[in-house]
Amino acid sequence: xxxxxxxxxxxxxxxxxxxxxxxxxxxxxxxxxxxxxxxxxxxxxxxxxxxxxxxxxxxxxxxxxxxxxxxxxxxxxxxxxxxxxxxxxxxxxxxxxxxxxxxxxxxxxxxxxxxxxxxxxxxxxxxxxxxxxxxxxxxxxxxxxxxxxxxxxxxxxxxxxxxxxxxxxxxxxxxxxxxxxxxxxxxxxxxxxxxxxxxxxxxxxxxxxxxxxxxxxxxxxxxxxxxxxxxxxxxxxxxxxxxxxxxxxxxxxxxxxxxxxxxxxxxxxxxxxxxxxxxxxxxxxxxxxxxxxxxxxxxxxxxxxxxxxxxxxxxxxxxxxxxxxxxxxxxxxxxxxxxxxxxxxxxxxxxxxxxxxxxxxxxxxxxxxxxxxxxxxxxxxxx
Length: 383
Prior knowledge:
Number of helices: 17
Number of strands: 3
Strand order of the largest sheet: 1-2-3
Structural class: mainly alpha
């Protein structure tokens, strides 16, 4: 056999040969330039009409819950908020100077060590882990937050019936007003899933090696921490805080555009017309600002949005007004992206489960295989 013939031989098959990391029935993004669907449901129909637990159930458990199923699901999640003693001990060793994203990455890994996934990686077990992570990520973050600052070991199990309400209660030490809880539902819904972004793809790659759910989510958190993927709402908040008035903001942003500076929070690699999530979170930010009687930051953010469209034809994405929303609910800036983690754990977990089911099926990459978009059925009309 000649050297040329030898070189043309097919490569030897290895353990990961044929494993597809990029096909999903979970979500479609930007098919018409400005659309987003979760399992066929239009984000514009579900984001501000569903509680986050409904969307988590849709993604992880594959269907919108009935009223009875939603009640049972919330009860299950409430029972998963506690933290094992070894995890609390681990969190207590993390200094106050740590970034909250590192806290969640470490907490997820620690929980996976204390309560490991079974080797059989069955779907039911994976869904239980997904539910536990969504339920207790807020507990992890805020247990560390209070302990690292004043050595106070807070009780992480609250009476709140929602993940967003639980987070706000632990943060502020008292139940949040209904508007804040509803705003958290909408925000979490908007961040829950977004097809083949970097962190989701990282989770699927980890899952494709046969690794466990905790490792996949830990990898996704690490990927989201990177400034080229997460953190845009934190940077957006810093941008808005440069200015005291909308006029000052406009003048400076125009100058920065002329100097070819990048303004974080605008444009999107998938959407070509607009980010459909923006108008929803913008209205949330407006309502929270009106409720607080403080419109300055919202008006500055809105003026910058107008300038970016006028000067660069660039639209605001979800992160831009999310920064205003979280600030108005008293969330520390460094926790903006960790809230993203709590929401996206539903999507990441659903992708891991899907990847495991499909990992021996060779399909074209990035092909949507789910249902066509359909009308949303409000919870009142579900049996």
